[in-house]
């Protein structure tokens, strides 16, 4: 029976595996939230509870119920849902399933793996003493052991980073009375707040146990600085830090053989979050570059805004860094987004649109794959690494217009809105695209909408 279910599981499409996982966990979370009593009456509707459960496990950070309605026990349930739905955790589970499938494959049925600190010795059955067979099994066993090692590294990374973050938040709450008083007035357990918040920002969910998100903690710069690394290490910097962790483990002689194999065979392993060395460096540079750009734009446009009113210079700097780090999918905020300048909002939208592993820095390809006679194409490819996509150009011009016309946007929001500016920029860009097609038969095209007549 066990073998039957195992074979059935292997035949299921990966998409349906993921769908089954999220659906089952969502219903389980809904059941627990329904059984546990909320802090206030009346109880939230079943649909609201189910929506919140789905939002937590899919780390979407959308809710139809105020967070302070949930009791301490319900907050713990939401914490578990966010932890189980985080990208790092789900990828680790998938990695262990992959290792399990590889270990159960028929090629390893006749292989016994004996390890020592320097190498792995493969002892096959006497009936399978063929050299090619032993070589194939040795490669398979190396892959199996490396995937197993990588799975435990991801698990250790997940637990150590979050445990350190939770400890730092608890220490901060014990030392800073202003932050502790906020939780006391709201009736939130400090330990629950620390665990819930760290798990939420690490999983890029954005749920915070307070109704005002992190706005009530905007003056607690220490707390914001603790959460910034959690935001980055659980999202955009996960891949570079994972590779760096494996490199460090190899240097300190912890599973040195597996570390070396992983670092040299990134493509063979096929783990989405384990990137090549050059890509990891380019990604880290891109993340830090976008963080600086976001900080500069937010600080320049919002320095004297109502959202940062009452903060000193240091608190504004920390708040700008925190807000810029959260733009890349995390969702926590220290300002009311409805009061933020339109140019900043457009930038935030673009940052949320970008995938976490987007890199704008050039990455050299393997020189052996580029023939000597195609040197000019290699140089052209290197130049095009810096060329942005059409969407990026649109976003840049929209942001620039929002900055130059910010006074008119405030004085005449009906005619000068972000929506109108976006439509006009895209309309002009579409007209330019049509004009560029003149060589293929279009003789004229005007932004005013004049009909284009085919030439000749």
From TrEMBL:
* Gene Ontology CC annotations of this record: plasma membrane
Per UniProt, subcellular location reads as: Membrane
List keywords of the entry alphabetically. Answer: Ion transport, Membrane, Transmembrane, Transmembrane helix, Transport
Residues spanning the membrane:
15-35, 75-98, 149-173, 193-210, 222-249, 282-301, 334-354, 386-404
Question: What membrane topology does the UniProt entry give?
Answer: Multi-pass membrane protein
One GO term under biological process is:
metal ion transport
Q: Which InterPro entries has this protein been placed in? A: Cat_transpt, TrkH_K-transport
GO MF, one example: monoatomic cation transmembrane transporter activity
One Pfam family recorded for the sequence: TrkH
Signal peptide bounds: none
> What protein family is recorded?
Belongs to the TrkH potassium transport family. HKT (TC 2.A.38.3) subfamily.
Q: What is this protein called?
A: Sodium transporter HKT1-like
